[in-house]
TrEMBL record:
<dbReference type="GO" id="GO:0010181">
    <property type="term" value="F:FMN binding"/>
</dbReference>
<keyword id="KW-0521">NADP</keyword>
<dbReference type="GO" id="GO:0016629">
    <property type="term" value="F:12-oxophytodienoate reductase activity"/>
</dbReference>
<keyword id="KW-0288">FMN</keyword>
<feature type="compositionally biased region" description="Basic and acidic residues">
    <location>
        <begin position="146"/>
        <end position="159"/>
    </location>
</feature>
<keyword id="KW-0560">Oxidoreductase</keyword>
<dbReference type="InterPro" id="IPR001155">
    <property type="entry name" value="OxRdtase_FMN_N"/>
</dbReference>
<dbReference type="InterPro" id="IPR045247">
    <property type="entry name" value="Oye-like"/>
</dbReference>
<feature type="compositionally biased region" description="Polar residues">
    <location>
        <begin position="124"/>
        <end position="136"/>
    </location>
</feature>
<keyword id="KW-0285">Flavoprotein</keyword>
<dbReference type="Pfam" id="PF00724">
    <property type="entry name" value="Oxidored_FMN"/>
</dbReference>
<feature type="region of interest" description="Disordered">
    <location>
        <begin position="124"/>
        <end position="159"/>
    </location>
</feature>
<dbReference type="InterPro" id="IPR013785">
    <property type="entry name" value="Aldolase_TIM"/>
</dbReference>
<feature type="domain" description="NADH:flavin oxidoreductase/NADH oxidase N-terminal">
    <location>
        <begin position="17"/>
        <end position="347"/>
    </location>
</feature>
<comment type="similarity">
    <text>Belongs to the NADH:flavin oxidoreductase/NADH oxidase family.</text>
</comment>
<protein>
    <recommendedName>
        <fullName>NADH:flavin oxidoreductase/NADH oxidase N-terminal domain-containing protein</fullName>
    </recommendedName>
</protein>
Length: 381
């Protein structure tokens, strides 16, 4: 009888992405996470009131949101109009945004960030050189609108005696994030920015205790995590890592070894999550398997991101390759993404030209993507 019932039962399996999950002390109602998305609409590095609507649109009761990369100090910027969290004014400006997310039952982490050498003198105090693990510069990068390139100034290699100051900047930023009301912070250790510039052997050419061996290259990111954990508690700390990526000329000759070393070392801090970015290119371990060794080695919640759609995400959860999936471009263009996934509804297309502000109306391509129950209005990608 039981076998017959199972065979004839309608297939009402729960959608894996829409199942609840307990992340440390946070009870998530589903596994569809808003990935951190820089939007360049925070004038003079201060979050703006228009972010209240943008983030609250993307909030669901019990959903996890990660705020856009947010600078930890006045040397941390390398892009126009990105938010910071090192001044009182910035902390106050974040408060209504965080409150709006909480009012709808969201859990909100702030990604804390230093760009390192992905910058130029125009973003630096007193026109000084950007700082990094190295004094090697990077090539200009094409702008997203195709209008020319972003120039980077060759960086100044941080002296060993300056490293404690960097760690302290992350510590204070974490304290400020909690003061602003965030539920936690995500240390940005990915994508070729400062901490990744220490991690990766194609960038880090130091000869002190922060360069050379794998252990030495991982030292600064781990000291940052330790300081942040010490400041706000491990249950409020996550980290983002992209060992397989080589954004801004930040590749590593052995990304799997690097990723595994980091997650094993992170285990001793009991941080709440590790958020890893898929390479989605190359063939280490075959498609979708690249992050699996890190996932297996890490004791906390594992978030995967990078190129996932609904089906990929469901499969990754069902196969236990991740606990949560972070969505970037799809969530940017679909404020009600978890609901659309629940209903398997069609998605709005994202418009690459309005990812960043680029001198147009800041609300365009920001808080004007339609909800499912609004008039259908597909935006061209
Ligand atoms: C407009 C835009 C801004 C982004 N800003 C950030 C950021 O601030 N911090 C970060 O770690 N990743 C950032 N990313 C990467 C995304 O978080 C995500 O990893 C990437 O888009 C791949 O996921 P997807 O395929 O779901 O879009 C950004 C991506 C886009 C498209």
């Amino acid at each position: 009888m039981a076998a017959t019932a199972a065979a004839t039962a309608p297939s009402h399996q729960p959608t894996p992405l829409l199942t609840p999950y307990k992340m440390g002390k946070f009870n998530l109602s589903h596994r569809v996470v808003l990935a951190p998305l820089t939007r360049e609409r925070s004038y003079k590095n201060v979050p703006q009131p228009h972010a209240v609507l943008y983030y609250s649109q993307r909030t669901s009761n019990g959903g996890l949101l990660i705020a856009e990369a947010t600078g930890v100090s006045d040397t941390a910027q390398g892009y126009p109009e990105t938010p910071g969290i090192w001044t009182k004014e910035q902390v106050e400006a974040w408060k209504p945004i965080v409150d709006a997310v909480h009012a709808k039952g969201g859990i909100f982490f702030c990604q804390i960030w230093h760009v390192g050498r992905v910058s130029n003198t125009g973003y630096q105090p007193n026109g000084q050189a950007p700082i990094s693990s190295t004094d090697k510069g990077i090539s200009p990068t094409p702008r997203v609108d195709g209008l020319g390139h972003t120039e980077h100034t060759p960086p100044r290699r941080l002296r060993t005696d300056e490293i404690p100051g960097i760690i302290n900047d992350f510590r204070l930023a974490a304290r400020n994030a909690i003061e602003a009301g965030f539920d936690g912070v995500e240390v940005h250790g990915a994508h070729g920015y400062l901490l990744d510039q220490f991690l990766k052997d194609k960038v880090n050419d130091r000869t002190d205790q922060y360069g050379g061996s794998l252990e030495n290259r991982c030292r600064l990111p781990l000291e940052v995590v330790e300081a942040v954990v010490d400041e706000v508690g491990a249950d409020r700390v996550g980290i983002r890592l992209s060992p397989f990526a080589d954004f801004s000329e930040s590749g590593d000759s052995n990304p799997l070894q690097l990723g595994l070393y980091m997650v094993n070392a992170l285990n001793k801090f009991n941080i709440v999550y590790c958020h890893a970015v898929e390479p989605r290119v190359g063939s280490v371990g075959g498609p979708d398997e690249n992050l699996t060794p890190m996932r297996k080695a890490f004791n906390g919640t594992f978030i995967a991101a990078g190129g996932y759609d609904r089906e990929d995400g469901n499969r990754a959860i069902a196969e236990n390759r991740a606990d949560l999936i972070a969505y970037g471009r799809l969530f940017l263009a679909n404020p009600d993404l978890p609901k659309r996934f629940a209903l398997n509804a069609p998605l709005n297309k994202y418009n690459r030209l309005t990812f960043y502000h680029l001198n147009s109306d800041p609300l365009v391509g920001y808080s004007d993507y339609p909800f499912l129950d609004e008039e259908s209005n597909s935006v061209e990608s």
